[in-house]
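Hi W.,

Here's what went into the run:
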Amino acid sequence: MTDLSRRKLLGALGMAPVAGGLLTVAGSATGGPVMSADRVQDQARESARRRYFPNLTLRTQDDKEVRFYDDLIRGKIVTINFFYSKCEDVCPIVTSNLVKVQELLGDQVGRQVFMYSFSLKPKEDTPKAMKEYAEMHGVKPGWTFLTGKPEDLELLRRKLGFTTPDLRADKDVTNHTGNIRYGNEPFMLWGACPGMADPQWIAESVEWMVRPDAVHLPHEHAPAHPDAPRPEHQHHVHPAG
Amino acid sequence: MYFNVFGEKVSKGRFKQMVNAFRNRQELIAAGLTSRRDLLKMGLLSASGMLLAKHGLSARAQTSTTTSTSTGSPGSFNVCLPGNQAASPPTRSFVEPLPIMPLAQTVPVASLSPAPTIAPNTAGGEVRAADHQGPELNPSMFPFPPPRVYQVRQHAIQAVQSPDLPTQTIWAFDDGFHATSPGPTYRADYGIAQLVRNINALPPVNQNGGFGMPSVTTHLHNGHTPSESDGNPCDFYPSGNFCDQYYPNVLAGFSFDHQPTGDINEALSTLWYHDHRVDFTAQNTYKGLLGFYCLFNQFDTGDETTGFHLPSFPQFDIPLAFADKVYDPTTGTLAFDLFNLDGILGDKFLVNGKIQPFFEVQPRRYRFRLLDTGPSRFYEFFLTNLNQLGATNQFFVIANDGNLLPAPVKVNSVRIGVAERVDVIVDFSSFAGKTIYLENRLRQINGMGPVPPQGLVPGQVECSDAFGNVLSDILPAGQGNLLLQFRVSGTKVVDNSVNPALDKPMFYALPDTTATPRVTRTFKFDRLNGQWSVNGQFMDCNHFRFLVQRNSVENWILFNATGDWTHPIHIHLEEHQILSRNRLPPPLAVERSRKDVTQLRQNERVLLFFRFRDWVGKYPIHCHNVVHEDHAMMGLWNVQPQGDTVLTP
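Here's what came out:
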């Protein structure tokens, strides 16, 4: 895997604000000196690393050893979900959705976008079991399945917020199989969406991480009926005066 | 099971040690060692913000909980930090005055470049979904350009939120005269349409300082606003683009059942504006993108000598925006829990952008417009006199969600959730020369909402001092969060405002709710395998779920399938009235009102009454716990001349 360089990402941005990004001082100025934007950014990135991204050793479906922060997160645009290969409930839906997302993102996956699925049952999800699961679903390169020590995967699950505050419900692993995190580590953009959402919508959300400054023209108004085909930019009907 | 802030499992013994260490730290603060500087001077705090091991103080005095102490610093009791958050550095309370947001200033329309157009000026950098409906519908009622024009830019500013924390880089609204967060307050008037050119001038994405998406869409919350100016979550645009938002300031029903000017009993007063960018609303509002919009008319005049004689704006009519936040314990900079799907709580309480400010008031009546800006906390406001904790200090609620009630309601306290507003009248005349506090006494320990009135379910507790104990949802007086200190002057003053206790004023009657609904739809709010959902579906900007018929009546059933969670549910375009909670009329007098956010409480089924009038286009229904909202607990619907009858859209 190659890290996506910061320079490359910055290059993808292009547009400069039309009205400028002037800093204005408001309120009483009793605080300390103001740090440069770069320094603030570096500090915030370091805080996020310490808080959320322990550099744990994990194992891929190809039985390769990787480090969570160094190899999987640092400098990358990623999707993250949790699964277990024997899950019969929602995991197959989410996985097949993600297969469609992978198709929609095309050759960006493995180059600009990296997809990760972390095991909720690392004892039974051996590299071999994960490889079979990936092959069964038609997973293509650029999407890595990860297992490791149970306590490490449990720590990761908590760090990445695949939890519920009700501790009884938290023990039920099926409660953690639904969501997909998407993010851009150097830019510290992190969002999440449901794994059962429309793959087109999930792919659009991931695209925001690749091209956060792209202009999307909104749908003018809605189609005549929710079941009807969805026309782009249909002209709305005005109320009668 | 107990966890530290790093999400690691710790023993009960270790957890208690951490709690004790935190308590010790609070005691240091209480002992007058209130600032970082003091603690540094005393050698008790290292430069990295950690308390040094001394007299039993742990060097890792951060737990995922902070607990009640009888001697802690005022306003820091019973604060829990769920998830991967660490306690903020100590700050002093009531050392800085309450900021009052400046009034937004108009600009000449000729100063707008490019000139505003009815159709979206896509080539000129505008991102808008459709033509302005008002001017196309009725150009004499909704002139173009309208009489009042504003130009605001959203950009980064440097702000001091506490003298004990470093200067923060946050995001603000700038009307060309003031750049503040909360942004400038609009003083709007019924019958005078206005246009706001909203320019996104946020810094590039690689300068977000740790969180926030520099892509925006500004919603005017509770506005009876045409869809294209509503600030729909899907109508977002990046830095360098703009959107012209046309606010008609018109009463609902003007084109339907109350022609030609609309229903006076649908008059709105306290609105607010905030970023609504799909999936990133929590981060962007937390970073500062919000402000007030106060709408006046011939009754609610802003002048206490006319109309309803409510305290004069802006001297005695004060918008108050409440927010709870967390600051990095090492750097002191504003922190946002990026990996949280349940709801984010802070351990610092800000009013109008300052941590626990004070406000010097005169011994007379004031109108306060209280707004919960979230992200996830509910508040129950009490007036507390720390020298007389047994006393009940009553006040009057005059408006719910910014809508004046039929008459003032006298209360001991009032509870609101995220995005709800309540206007109150507080009479300080009996407190002349004294100091009293606005206190939040509601116990909330995680994103689920307030703890149930009957107390905690044993074993549920990850973050509290409870260790499985049963606790009341209301904390004792003086042991909650002291949000704002009122310093009441001793000098008697003139007060021309209405006295709710004696004058028995009447405001607007509630619009009739006996009309037969065209359709009754049901919305089930649920969590499926961790995914927030509405009727088993998820937010998707490409998917519209149902069609409301313009100028029709509907009933909506909100059903809470998430058990112990409370969700503040917001519906755009039109207000609603609560017909029932679990098939009984709403128990509280303040809920017999017009609403735009309804708390869907534990195990509830709530029946709402709507009239959808005047405008067409797309609008959302969503949970306003912005963390739930950002994680798909939202659905889009559409108003058109012909509606459908989908029952569970």
